[in-house]
Recover the amino acids of this structure.
């Protein structure tokens, strides 16, 4: 079982779309995939489920991520066995919840006491323990986490329980600058997690995360496609050429001493071009773009373009399949 967070502290880089398509392709390849929506904006949940399913997941008897760990968030008990929602063949989802922001406040409040108070520790590892429990029941091959674009307590907790992370980036100045924040924050989180986990391991506490997610690489997203050697417009290429250097300097070099990098010759896992108007059709149909057809409103060249979009992910899917 492999757990991977799709994470960047910058919004608008297509994290949710990337995760949803990757999950579907892994499921199509015969792997059982569990998606976890840990973004209180719930974009992944809206992509995969109907409004009725979402409303049910938020009810007192629902199975959203917040409902599952609500007893821990309120200090009244342990996580609840809330089975994930079946999405399609081999694909499941733990729905997101706007109330997850309430839990983030509790994570922040209990962080400083997590090394000495068991109830605070259980708060920090609540999502990790719940997700592992459900994933094992499903015999899951892959767990993919969708995270919000921030460096707060919730993402620190979730990433601490992941094996790996992938960073979608846009070829722009903000993504390049953002790699500095990512590298610095992962170093800080490593320093903060280590004494907490060491203390509880020495006491024999079980179900502790490793809290050292390894960087698998980055994905270039949302560039404008052109039929030249780079596949980008000249405007996008200006920043696109700088991305790899920034990733190597700000992420790979910072995390290598912490053993939080999967060594590769090239950390670019691939490039996903901007699919423009195909995305709204995909969202409306609650299907990945490559599964959309004329029945979903596509016409003419859009049908063949949608089908061919699966090829943009092929190398990434093969690489991830190699992890299991």
């Amino acid at each position: 079982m492999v757990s991977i967070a799709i994470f960047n502290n910058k919004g608008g880089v297509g994290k949710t779309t990337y995760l949803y398509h990757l999950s579907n392709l892994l499921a199509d390849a015969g792997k059982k995939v569990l998606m976890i929506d840990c973004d209180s904006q719930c974009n992944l949940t809206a992509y995969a489920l109907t409004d009725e399913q979402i409303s049910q997941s938020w009810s007192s008897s629902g199975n959203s991520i917040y409902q599952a760990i609500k007893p821990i968030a309120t200090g009244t008990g342990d996580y609840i066995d809330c089975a994930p929602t079946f999405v399609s063949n081999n694909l499941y989802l733990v729905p997101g919840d706007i109330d997850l922001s309430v839990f983030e406040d509790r994570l922040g409040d209990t962080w400083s006491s997590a090394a000495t108070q068991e109830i605070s520790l259980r708060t920090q590892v609540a999502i990790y323990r719940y997700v592992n429990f459900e994933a094992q029941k499903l015999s899951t091959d892959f767990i993919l986490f969708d995270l919000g674009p921030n460096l707060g307590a919730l993402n620190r907790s979730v990433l601490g329980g992941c094996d790996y992370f992938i960073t979608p980036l846009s070829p722009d100045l903000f993504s390049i600058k953002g790699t500095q924040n990512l590298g610095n924050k992962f170093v800080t989180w490593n320093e903060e997690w280590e004494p907490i986990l060491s203390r509880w391991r020495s006491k024999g506490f079980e179900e502790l995360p490793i809290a050292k997610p390894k960087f698998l690489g980055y994905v270039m997203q949302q560039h404008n496609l052109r039929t030249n050697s780079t596949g980008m417009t000249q405007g996008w290429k200006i920043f696109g050429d700088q991305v790899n250097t920034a990733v190597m300097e700000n992420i790979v070099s910072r995390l290598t001493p912490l053993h939080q990098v999967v060594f590769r010759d090239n950390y670019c896992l691939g490039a996903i071009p901007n699919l423009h108007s195909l995305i709204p059709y995909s969202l409306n149909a609650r299907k990945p773009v490559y599964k959309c057809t004329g029945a979903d409103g596509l016409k003419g060249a859009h049908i063949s373009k949608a089908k061919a979009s699966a090829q943009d992910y092929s190398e990434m899917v093969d690489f991830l399949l190699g992890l299991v």
User: Anything to note?
Assistant: The CA atoms of residues 10 and 149 lie 5 Å apart. The first helix runs from residue 15 to 28.
